[in-house]
């Protein structure tokens, strides 16, 4: 007795294959739609902004006149911001990830912490802005400084870095740790000599992607009250400053049409910065990735 | 030290080379590991039950038994590697050279420096061959390049792989074949100059020729080290070991000289297992 009837199988074959093709095209359309939107956006921004994009735009301060307006203060301000955010968030984030993955015992409390760190990554950025305003700007009296904004942004991207670092650390095979412990290595030696070298590509990739999120975030800066029109560069960590997304936001909401084009030029600068950072992340991942 | 063993044997002592006599009579072989009423639980699962075993130095002790009988758990208890599993509980004692390794102030790092381990799956680090071998000496504080060079060469020669890799010490150990990787792991273990080497099914992931090489290697180095090898391959146990322990359901059924176990076992279950009736 055969359970599979060949004639029935052959009869259904055509419709099965057709259905298969149909789904393939649907998924392709979904992809193309996203791509199309991106292309429209890019074309619009480049065609509007490229006219204003020149050396003067990079070296001028903000101005009432669109043709004199420049992005110098915002660009340098964003770099200052990154100089605070990068070390603070990476050191705290990787430290937390190492603790959770390598030291923390498996119990209810630690499971609770692990789950909630992932949830924190989904908290809206404006909430972090309010947190920063309350703690750093007011309670600690740091004002609208690079340091206050930097700490706020660090808190914002910390969960993302922790989760990325945890995953990178977890991806190091346990056999590697066993080999190290088996020779009498301490936990610290095992972490610094075996676990971290293997996890570094994943950690850095995650960190750079998180940093590029921080560089584009506007809401926390608005809440903190970062000024927009500055005619000077920050002199230190406690100076006032402005940042790229703030500047772009300000230009975009001005009534004169020309400022819309200036704003597009600013977006181009911001996007170039993001592409560069993401390329570094991809480069690091490909260059240092280890296979087991 | 335990003096209840009356075996007599002649032993070429590597430490006495250069003195007037390099051969001396040892009346008792020292016990390296003595397990007394040792129990181990994974959570609620009673994995090792009342283990009593004396393992002598400079011998190859094979541990055989069907899957899940506790043989791997037992050798992982000997260097306390089993504690990496958080839910493990132990009772009773295992002494290494007369000192209970589960004693409160016994540091695992100290124990594992004396008791090296080779794992089931070759697990070299994704580093150069040189850095793999130098890993152990380096964590114990040796920085002198010349000393490290010597240790690397001596260990690779000891693991009979020097000639195969001497021209590519700076290449990644992952470029080697599985069998070579396992011998690199043995060399890496020799580099910390251990007293005992624990081997947890070291050839189960290897092809027959690589297996043969590892077995020959075990024969060559057993005069300098005490070796405890877990194997699911009974022929292997018969070929390379001096003594064999048969584990079943977390208990030691029989422990004796290997030829005795394989020719005239006293327990019916041992006989059933080695004749292939189960397992």
TrEMBL record, chain A:
<keyword id="KW-0472">Membrane</keyword>
<dbReference type="InterPro" id="IPR035906">
    <property type="entry name" value="MetI-like_sf"/>
</dbReference>
<keyword id="KW-0812">Transmembrane</keyword>
<comment type="similarity">
    <text>Belongs to the binding-protein-dependent transport system permease family. CysTW subfamily.</text>
</comment>
<feature type="transmembrane region" description="Helical">
    <location>
        <begin position="146"/>
        <end position="169"/>
    </location>
</feature>
<protein>
    <recommendedName>
        <fullName>Phosphate transport system permease protein PstA</fullName>
    </recommendedName>
</protein>
<feature type="transmembrane region" description="Helical">
    <location>
        <begin position="259"/>
        <end position="284"/>
    </location>
</feature>
<feature type="transmembrane region" description="Helical">
    <location>
        <begin position="120"/>
        <end position="140"/>
    </location>
</feature>
<dbReference type="GO" id="GO:0005315">
    <property type="term" value="F:phosphate transmembrane transporter activity"/>
</dbReference>
<feature type="transmembrane region" description="Helical">
    <location>
        <begin position="75"/>
        <end position="100"/>
    </location>
</feature>
<dbReference type="InterPro" id="IPR005672">
    <property type="entry name" value="Phosphate_PstA"/>
</dbReference>
<dbReference type="GO" id="GO:0035435">
    <property type="term" value="P:phosphate ion transmembrane transport"/>
</dbReference>
<dbReference type="GO" id="GO:0005886">
    <property type="term" value="C:plasma membrane"/>
</dbReference>
<feature type="domain" description="ABC transmembrane type-1">
    <location>
        <begin position="75"/>
        <end position="281"/>
    </location>
</feature>
<keyword id="KW-0813">Transport</keyword>
<keyword id="KW-1133">Transmembrane helix</keyword>
<dbReference type="Pfam" id="PF00528">
    <property type="entry name" value="BPD_transp_1"/>
</dbReference>
<dbReference type="InterPro" id="IPR000515">
    <property type="entry name" value="MetI-like"/>
</dbReference>
<keyword id="KW-1003">Cell membrane</keyword>
<feature type="transmembrane region" description="Helical">
    <location>
        <begin position="190"/>
        <end position="212"/>
    </location>
</feature>
UniProtKB/TrEMBL annotation, chain B:
<keyword id="KW-0067">ATP-binding</keyword>
<dbReference type="Pfam" id="PF00005">
    <property type="entry name" value="ABC_tran"/>
</dbReference>
<dbReference type="GO" id="GO:0035435">
    <property type="term" value="P:phosphate ion transmembrane transport"/>
</dbReference>
<keyword id="KW-0547">Nucleotide-binding</keyword>
<feature type="domain" description="ABC transporter">
    <location>
        <begin position="26"/>
        <end position="274"/>
    </location>
</feature>
<dbReference type="InterPro" id="IPR027417">
    <property type="entry name" value="P-loop_NTPase"/>
</dbReference>
<protein>
    <submittedName>
        <fullName>Phosphate ABC transporter ATP-binding protein</fullName>
        <ecNumber>3.6.3.27</ecNumber>
    </submittedName>
</protein>
<dbReference type="InterPro" id="IPR003439">
    <property type="entry name" value="ABC_transporter-like_ATP-bd"/>
</dbReference>
<dbReference type="GO" id="GO:0016020">
    <property type="term" value="C:membrane"/>
</dbReference>
<keyword id="KW-0378">Hydrolase</keyword>
<dbReference type="GO" id="GO:0016887">
    <property type="term" value="F:ATP hydrolysis activity"/>
</dbReference>
<dbReference type="InterPro" id="IPR017871">
    <property type="entry name" value="ABC_transporter-like_CS"/>
</dbReference>
<dbReference type="GO" id="GO:0005524">
    <property type="term" value="F:ATP binding"/>
</dbReference>
<keyword id="KW-0813">Transport</keyword>
<dbReference type="InterPro" id="IPR005670">
    <property type="entry name" value="PstB-like"/>
</dbReference>
<dbReference type="GO" id="GO:0005315">
    <property type="term" value="F:phosphate transmembrane transporter activity"/>
</dbReference>
<dbReference type="InterPro" id="IPR003593">
    <property type="entry name" value="AAA+_ATPase"/>
</dbReference>
């Amino acid at each position: 007795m055969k359970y599979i009837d060949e004639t029935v199988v052959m009869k259904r074959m055509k419709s099965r294959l057709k259905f298969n093709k149909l789904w393939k095209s649907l998924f392709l359309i979904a992809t193309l739609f996203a791509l199309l939107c991106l292309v429209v956006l890019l074309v619009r921004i480049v065609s509007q902004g490229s006219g204003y994009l020149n050396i003067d735009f990079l070296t001028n301060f903000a101005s009432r006149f669109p043709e004199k307006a420049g992005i110098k203060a915002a660009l340098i301000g964003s770099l200052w911001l990154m100089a605070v955010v990068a070390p603070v968030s990476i050191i705290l984030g990787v430290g937390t990830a190492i603790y959770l993955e390598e030291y923390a015992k498996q119990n209810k409390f630690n499971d609770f912490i692990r789950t909630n760190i992932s949830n924190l990554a989904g908290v809206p950025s404006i909430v972090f802005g309010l947190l920063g305003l309350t703690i750093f700007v007011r309670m600690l009296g740091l004002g609208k400084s690079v340091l206050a904004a930097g700490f706020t942004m660090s808190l914002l991207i910390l969960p993302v870095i922790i989760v990325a670092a945890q995953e990178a650390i977890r991806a190091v095979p346990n056999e590697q740790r066993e080999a190290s412990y088996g020779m009498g290595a301490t936990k610290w030696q095992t972490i610094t000599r075996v676990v971290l070298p293997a996890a570094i590509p994943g950690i850095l990739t995650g960190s750079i992607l998180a940093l590029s999120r921080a560089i584009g975030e506007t809401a926390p800066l608005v809440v903190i009250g970062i000024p927009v029109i500055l005619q000077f560069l920050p002199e230190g960590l406690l100076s006032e400053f402005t940042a790229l997304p703030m500047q772009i936001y300000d230009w975009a909401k001005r009534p004169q049409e020309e400022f819309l084009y200036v704003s597009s030029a600013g977006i181009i600068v911001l996007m170039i910065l993001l592409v560069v950072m993401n390329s570094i992340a991809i480069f690091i991942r490909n260059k240092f990735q280890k296979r087991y | 030290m335990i003096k209840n063993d009356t075996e007599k044997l002649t032993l070429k002592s590597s430490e006495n080379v250069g003195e007037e006599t390099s051969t001396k009579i040892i009346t008792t072989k020292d016990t390296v590991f003595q397990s007394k009423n040792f129990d181990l639980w994974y959570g609620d699962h009673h994995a090792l039950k009342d283990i009593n075993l004396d393992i002598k130095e400079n011998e190859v002790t094979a541990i055989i038994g069907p899957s899940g009988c506790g043989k791997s758990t037992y050798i992982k208890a000997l260097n306390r590697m089993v504690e990496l599993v958080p839910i493990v509980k132990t009772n009773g004692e295992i002494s290494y050279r007369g000192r209970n390794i589960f004693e409160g102030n016994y540091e695992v790092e100290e124990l594992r420096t004396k008791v090296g381990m080779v794992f089931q799956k070759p697990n070299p680090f994704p580093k150069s061959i040189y850095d793999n071998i130098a890993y152990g000496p380096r964590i114990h504080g040796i920085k002198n390049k010349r000393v490290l060079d010597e240790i690397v060469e001596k260990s690779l020669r000891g693991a009979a792989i020097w000639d195969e890799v001497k021209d590519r010490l700076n290449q990644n150990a992952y470029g080697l074949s599985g069998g070579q990787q396992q011998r690199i792991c043995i060399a890496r273990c020799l580099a910390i100059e251990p007293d005992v080497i624990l081997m947890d099914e070291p050839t189960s992931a290897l092809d027959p020729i690589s297996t043969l090489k590892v077995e020959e290697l075990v024969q060559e180095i057993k005069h300098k080290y005490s070796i405890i090898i877990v194997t699911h391959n009974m022929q292997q146990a018969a070929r390379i070991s001096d003594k064999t322990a048969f584990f079943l359901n977390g208990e030691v059924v029989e422990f004796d000289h290997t030829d005795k176990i394989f020719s005239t076992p006293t327990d019916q279950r041992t006989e059933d297992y080695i004749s292939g009736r189960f397992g």
